[in-house]
Structure formats: C-alpha cells, structure tokens
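>> Question from a student workshop board

For tomorrow's exercise we were told to take the sequence and the ligand below, predict the bound structure, and bring the output to class. My setup keeps failing. Could a helper post the expected result so I can at least see what it should look like? The ligand is magnesium ion.
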Amino acid sequence: MEIVAKLINASKSYKAGDTTITALHETSLSFYSNRLTLILGPSGSGKTTLLSLLGCVISPSTGEVNLLGRNINDLSMNELADLRLNKIGFVFQGFNLLQPLTAFENVRMPLLLKRENPKVAREKTIKALEMVGMLDRQKNLPRMLSGGQRQRIAIARALVTNPEILLCDEPTASIDALSAKKVMEELKVLADSGKAVIVVTHDTRLTRYADRIIYVSEGRCDDRPFNIEESF
Ligand SMILES: Nc1ncnc2c1ncn2[C@@H]1O[C@H](COP(=O)(O)OP(=O)(O)OP(=O)(O)O)[C@@H](O)[C@H]1O
Ligand SMILES: [Mg+2]
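>> Workshop helper replied:
Here is what the output should look like for this input. Compare the format with yours to find the bug.
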C-alpha cells in the first residue's frame, strides 16, 4: 500500500457572475494503491470536483494536488497530458463512449493516442475486454449494449493503458442491481491486484465493496475509519 495521490489544503471555487461557489473547501487527503476508496455524498456535494482534481482535469484554486510524488501545479501542459494518458484511467459520469465506434475500437482509443504499435495495441485491447468479460461483444456498437455492458466497456477503456490510478464517477448509475454488482466486483478485483481505485457514488449500497469511505457534504470531506465486516 503506497500513497499515489494527495490533496494538501486543496480547494476549488467557481465564479458565476458576482458570486463564487466553493465546490470543495480546503481538503487534505491521501489515496492509496491496493485500496478501493468510495467517495459518498449527495448530488452537488463536490464529488466530481474532488475526482476531477485527482484526475488532473481541473486544477485547485488553493493548495496542492500531488500525483505519484509530483505536484501537478509544477507540470507543463504536455507533462499533464502524459500523466493523464499513462497513469490515470477515468470512467466519466455518463461514460461517454464514442457512438460510431465498436466496443473494441472504443477500448483501443487511448492506445492510438499513445501511438502504440498496432499489434501490441490489439493484444492489450483484447486483454482489457477479457478482464471485464466483454470480449464476445467486441464488434458491437455502444447502442447494441445494455447500460451495464457499456459501463464495463468504459472500464476496459480506462484500464487498457494499465494505469496506476482508476477514477470512476458514478460507475453504477442507471444500471440494474446485478450489473452494478458485476461492475463493483471487477473494480474490487482491480484494487486487490494493486491499483488505487477511487469510486464516486451517491449509492450507499456500494459501501460493502469499499476498503475506505470518504463522505462528502457541501464541499467538505469526512474520512471516517471503516470496518468492512460491519457492512454485512
Ligand atoms: N464548472 C463549474 N462551474 C460552476 N459551478 C460548478 C462547476 N462544476 C461544478 N460546479 C458546482 O460545484 C458544486 C459541486 O459540483 P459537483 O459536480 O462536484 O457535485 P457532485 O457531488 O458530483 O454532484 P452529482 O452527484 O450531482 O454529480 C455544485 O454546486 C455545482 O453546481
Ligand atoms: Mg458528479
């Protein structure tokens, strides 16, 4: 277990006309490899903001975000893009798969961006599809897949570069209970295999899969100690 990401007095505010919305108040938190961390809180509480800071999608208004030992404020645009592409897998809220591309092509996309050798890219894509149990649907377009299956393709796409950190925003939203269970079990296997898996949700049923839970309310984080046995 190692620290892979750290917020040090990090906050995020947005200006909307004359008013400023503080989406995340000053927060200090560490995130670890080999752990499935759940970020739980109601709509508008700042969960996506927290995850976006960790994914270098936005930068903090104050404080510091440290990823794999580097302060992201010190990185150039190219270094940031490199970090996002190689070290972080992001499953977005709504999972935005590219509709005209097949499942295989969607999963392969990050490897094309990396200019991976085509043969190696093919092998890695097949392996990622296998990991989420979707190899048999590789030729399907997203519209031919169920919500849960699309979610698994989005996870395969986030995994295909073998990132150290996997960030998932509401990975079980709008899917049925059985698909949600499959998705969470896969994410748990990935955490147990050594990755830092960070999952944002407002679904309290997912707490059973968590090694750790961070509660977010009105932009403030509460990191409570958590005993997994208690949730059963
Ligand atoms: N780009 C933005 N500009 C202005 N305000 C924003 C922006 N992004 C988020 N906010 C505001 O910050 C607050 C936190 O938003 P955030 O998206 O982090 O919430 P959330 O917990 O992910 O909610 P949900 O569960 O609905 O996805 C909200 O009040 C939101 O309106
Ligand atoms: Mg959100």
